[in-house]
Write a structure and sequence with these properties.
Shape: globular
CATH topology: Rossmann fold
Structural class: alpha/beta
Distance between the termini: 17 Å
Number of strands: 10
Oligomer: single chain
Helix content: 10-25%
Largest sheet: 8 strands, mixed
Strand content: 15-25%
Number of domains: 1
CATH class: Alpha Beta
Length: 283
């Protein structure tokens, strides 16, 4: 475990193995300026790891697990800290209990499918991102923005009775009413050449495949905007669902310290390789 965040070198990334809530309970209060993360989506992936969040058969159990993790995140954030939470939505299974493999996306194969939540119908869009957002709001978080991450190169779908999903949500939460937000660092080009404006709430960023993983990874450009807006150089960044380590890679590249928490040992090795390539002098 981490002895002292202050003892970490700038551009250093520490990866802790274990479940997010349990590891977070070992970390000190008010330690991180910013948290950037994407928790497992409900009922969309089966990583084959005991205790994985997202594999609950009941939606309320999933929401309860998410709330428990982010209560700890709120505790370890500084008073001026922000949380950037990326989460996608899902549909009810319509009574199906498995999902077949897909040659273009092997990670879609699942040996389980949660039953339709109470109050919903087959084919309903569940609204998971907003259920999480409102739950965290009830826990004391300030819900400051719902950013639409538009994916121009989104994955095609075979559906014929609704539009293809081409976006996910990126929620900006703050721990306190007043918090760190560097609007100058993330301004976007305005219509008049050479001028800039306050960044809008729709971010058009392509997904980026990563050959070392069969699951979705954060595009670095998405992480950079969160890091530049939500943290100062040399500050400490947290990702409690580290996955393949993109947040760590971008932290190393932009002069931040990073702590990542990951349950899956295979993902930890992948993340360690990626952060090592970003700054081999620290390993």
């Amino acid at each position: 475990m981490i002895q002292s965040l202050e003892a970490m070198e700038p551009r250093q990334c520490e990866i802790l193995e274990g479940d997010a809530q349990g590891v977070l309970q070992t970390l000190p209060d008010n330690a991180f300026q910013c948290c950037i993360t994407s928790p497992p989506y409900w009922g969309l992936r089966d990583y084959g790891i005991a205790g994985q969040i997202g594999a609950e058969m009941d939606l309320d159990e999933y929401l309860s697990s998410i709330r428990a993790v982010f209560r700890e995140v709120r505790r370890v954030l500084r008073d001026d800290g922000t949380l950037w939470l990326n989460i996608g939505d899902s549909y009810t299974s319509g009574g199906r209990k498995t999902r077949a493999t897909d040659k273009k996306n092997p990670a879609r194969e699942m040996n389980y499918r949660p039953p339709t939540p109470s109050g919903l119908k087959p084919k309903d869009l569940i609204g998971v991102p907003w259920k999480i957002a409102f739950a965290l709001q009830e826990d004391g978080w300030y819900l400051r923005s719902d950013v639409i991450w538009y994916k121009p190169n989104c994955q095609p779908e075979s559906v014929k009775d609704r539009p293809t999903q081409a976006h996910e949500y990126l929620f900006l939460f703050s721990k306190s009413e007043n918090y760190y937000y560097d609007r100058e660092a993330v301004k976007e080009p305005a219509q008049k050449k050479g001028t800039f404006r306050n960044r809008r709430s729709v971010w058009s960023i392509n997904t980026e495949p990563f050959k070392g993983a069969h699951f979705a990874v954060f595009p670095p450009q998405l992480i950079k905007l969160c890091i530049f807006a939500g943290s100062s150089r040399d500050s400490a960044i947290l990702d409690p669902f580290f996955g393949s380590g993109t947040v760590g890679v971008v932290c190393v590249e932009t002069g931040r310290r990073c702590v990542g928490i990951e349950l899956n040992p295979e993902f930890i090795e992948l993340a360690r390789e990626r952060t090592m390539l970003a700054n081999p002098s620290l390993f």
